[in-house]
Specification:
Structural class: alpha/beta
CATH architecture: 3-Layer(aba) Sandwich
Number of domains: 1
Order of helices and strands: HHEHEHEEHEHHHEE
Shape: globular
CATH class: Alpha Beta
Number of helices: 8
Helix content: 40-55%
Largest sheet: 7 strands, mixed
Number of strands: 7
Distance between the termini: 38 Å
CATH superfamily: Vaccinia Virus protein VP39
CATH topology: Rossmann fold
C-alpha cells in the first residue's frame, strides 16, 4: 500500500464546530477501544528511565482533546511522579474542547499555537510528546518538526503513531462504519492509516532526523512508539 498524500478533513479549515466536536468524540472512543494511550505510556516510561527526584515538565504537541495529557497525569499520580503538562493545539475549536475537558486538572494547561513554531524558549520542557500527529505531514516537514522539538526538550522526544498496513486500513473502515455516521471520522480514520508510514519508513525518518539515540518498537494494533533520547547530542 503506497502512502497517500491526500489531506485529511481535519487538516482543512472551514468545518462546522459541531462536526469537529463529534469527530473528536469519535476519536476519543476509538482510542479507548484501541488503547491509544498505551503506546505513548510505554515509550514515555522508557524515555523517563528511573523515577526522577524532582517534578517533570511535558509538552504534548497536537494535543487534540487532551486525552494524552490526562493519561500521563493519571500515570504520574499513580507512580507519585509530579508532572506539569502543556497541551499545544493549533485549531481553535479543538483547543477550546481540550481546555474544557482539562479544567479540573490544574497540572494540565492548554495553549493554542503552532507545533512548527511553539511559543516557548529552548529547553523549556523535559519531554516533548507527539501522539498520532506526525503522519499528517510530509517527510521533510516531519524531520523539521523533530528538530524544532529537540530544541525545546531537555531529555527526550516521545512519538506514538499509526503504522500503514492494509489490515489496519480495512479495519479502520469497518470499525468506523459500524460506529458512526460522522463524515469526517468516516473519511479521516482510514485515510490516516494511508497517510502513516511503515515501521521501516518510521525508522528511516528518525535516522534522517539524527537528533538522538532512538528506541523504537511496534505496539499492537498497528502502532509505532519511539523514545528519542537527546542527551547524546547535548
Amino acid at each position: 500500500m503506497k502512502r497517500s498524500e491526500e489531506k485529511e478533513m481535519m487538516d482543512c479549515s472551514g468545518h462546522s464546530p459541531d462536526l469537529l466536536a463529534d469527530d473528536l468524540r469519535n476519536l476519543r472512543r476509538l482510542n479507548r477501544y484501541l488503547n491509544g494511550s498505551h503506546s505513548v505510556l510505554l515509550a514515555f516510561e522508557r524515555a523517563l528511565g528511573r523515577a526522577p527526584d524532582k517534578p517533570i515538565s511535558i509538552l504534548d504537541v497536537g494535543t487534540g482533546s487532551a486525552d494524552i495529557p490526562a493519561a500521563i497525569l493519571a500515570w504520574s499520580r499513580h507512580r507519585k511522579v509530579p508532572a506539569s503538562i502543556i497541551g499545544l493545539e493549533a485549531e481553535t475549536t479543538t483547543a477550546r474542547i481540550a481546555a474544557e475537558r482539562s479544567k479540573t486538572s490544574p497540572a494540565i494547561q492548554i495553549i493554542q499555537g503552532d507545533a512548527a513554531a511553539p511559543p516557548f524558549s529552548p529547553g523549556t520542557f523535559d519531554f516533548v510528546i507527539a501522539s498520532q500527529f506526525l503522519h499528517h505531514f510530509s517527510e521533510a516537514k516531519i524531520i523539521a518538526l523533530l528538530h524544532e522539538w529537540a530544541a525545546l526538550a531537555r531529555r527526550a522526544i516521545v512519538i506514538s503513531d499509526l503504522v500503514r498496513h492494509p489490515l489496519a486500513y480495512h479495519g479502520a473502515r469497518v470499525l468506523t462504519r459500524l460506529t458512526t455516521r460522522n463524515v469526517m471520522t468516516l473519511i479521516d480514520a482510514p485515510l490516516s492509516v494511508r497517510r502513516a508510514f511503515t515501521l521501516s519508513e518510521w525508522r528511516g525518518l528518525f535516522r534522517r532526523a539524527d537528533i538522538g539515540a532512538v528506541e523504537m518498537f511496534s505496539v499492537f494494533p498497528f502502532r509505532v512508539a519511539a523514545a528519542v533520547r537527546l542527551g547524546d547530542n547535548r
